[in-house]
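pasting for the record
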Amino acid sequence: MSDPAAVTYFAPAKVNLGLSVRDLRSDGYHELHSLMVPLSVGDDLEIAPADTLTLRVEGADLPEDDGNLVLRAARAYLDAAGVAGGAAITLHKRLPLASGLGGGSSDAATTLMALARLYPASVDLPGLALRLGADVPFFLLGRAAVASGVGEVLSPTPVPRAALVLLNPGVEVSARDAYAWLDAEETFTPALDIEGILAALSNGRPVPYVNALQGPVAARHAPIREALAALTGAGLHSPLMSGSGSTCFALARDDAHAHDAAQVLAGQHPGWWVQPAQVLG
């Protein structure tokens, strides 16, 4: 039973409308260039004031201690704000795990924002977010943006509304592995054509984006290759793997087309996670 004092917060997923890995930096991180967009699907967090800090997870087998980024985010905020109390947090996990949709980072950013509302204080939220993970600042921003650097340099960018279908074939892909495979092959990529991507989205044309990680990851995971082919087979266009995978997506003409295509794909692949979604620009 939910705590009547709890407030529910939506933690949106994201996709990368293109992900270029330009180089391996001397500090071991990668120089990135990506157009990141939040989506209409995601996880939910219920957060209520409490004497201590606790986390409960529903919908997935995830740790409920400091192995969970949500709890680390909450602890970081409470410590920085000097709050003596805590919070009772319930994470309703709806996104697949290790799927390239940024679920854990979004959950962490949403936790920071929720606790800032619950316990207002002069806290450097962007600084906390960056220490928690490279994608967390994007979700703190809460809108589409071009990301560069290691993902922490964000330039808000209006993106046309778009409908798409998300397809996850049930494979978990470690981002660490994906980047290691890319490094071994040295298949780095040039900067994205952001103007070309935005123009194609506006006109419903094939989108000139790439994901530098897609080749190395798909070569090692046949289900990802099958997912990309299935999206095209369902009448969608511009299929791409998001982030380090394994979720793939493709664009639809409109919401109705996305809904119909998702139903077809769900019938063809009953063991896969399939969702129509909209870009929240």
